[in-house]
Amino acid sequence: MTDPATRRRVLFVEDEATLVSAYRRFFAGRYELAFASTGAEAAAAGATFSPDVAVVDLNLPDTDGFEVVRRLRERHPGLPIIITTAFASMAPVVETMGLGLGGCLIKPFELDELGARIDAAG
């Protein structure tokens, strides 16, 4: 287990309960975690949690992930963001717009791969 004082702070913006549960179980001893399931929750968490890295799903119930990324970048300009999406066609858009400094992962993906991207970001 990593020392809590040195763990990276990761904000996960994801509305799929099973994926949130998987993130929580897999990364609990590795990172300090915060979760948001809507764009509004992500904005609040970005203000109070001050993440080192954000993992943002593009499909959210109240807004799209692009708006969440925009809001997070306003508050934290250099924040590494890893985009997750079920739509492979979105990967080139994310890459060309420079939205995901940490890249884009197409669902389903391996949690080890996500962890490696979080570790490498920033």
Overview features:
122 residues, alpha/beta, Rossmann fold, 5 helices, globular
Task: Kindly summarize this structure in a few lines.
The protein is α/β, with parallel strands linked by helices and 122 residues long. The protein has helices at 17-27, 39-48, 65-75, 90-97, 111-120; strands spanning 9-13, 32-36, 53-57, 81-85, 103-106. Helix 2 runs parallel beside helix 3.
* Sheet with the most strands, sense and barrel status: 5 strands, parallel
Mean pLDDT: 88
Determine the structural class based on helices, strands and strand pairing: alpha/beta
Alpha-carbon Rg, integer: 13 Å
The total of beta strands comes to: 5
**In the CATH scheme, what's the topology name?**
Rossmann fold
User: Considering DSSP H and I runs of 4 or more, what fraction of the residues is helical?
Assistant: 40-55%
Describe this entry's structure for a reader.
The protein is built from five helices and five strands. It is α/β, with parallel strands linked by helices and 122 residues long. It has a single domain (9-120), classed as 3-Layer(aba) Sandwich (Rossmann fold), CATH 3.40.50. Helix 2 (39-48) runs parallel beside helix 3 (65-75).
Detail the topology: elements first, then pairings:
Layout lengths: L8 E5 L3 H11 L4 E5 L2 H10 L4 E5 L7 H11 L5 E5 L4 H8 L5 E4 L4 H10 L2
Parallel strand pairs: 1-2, 1-3, 3-4, 4-5
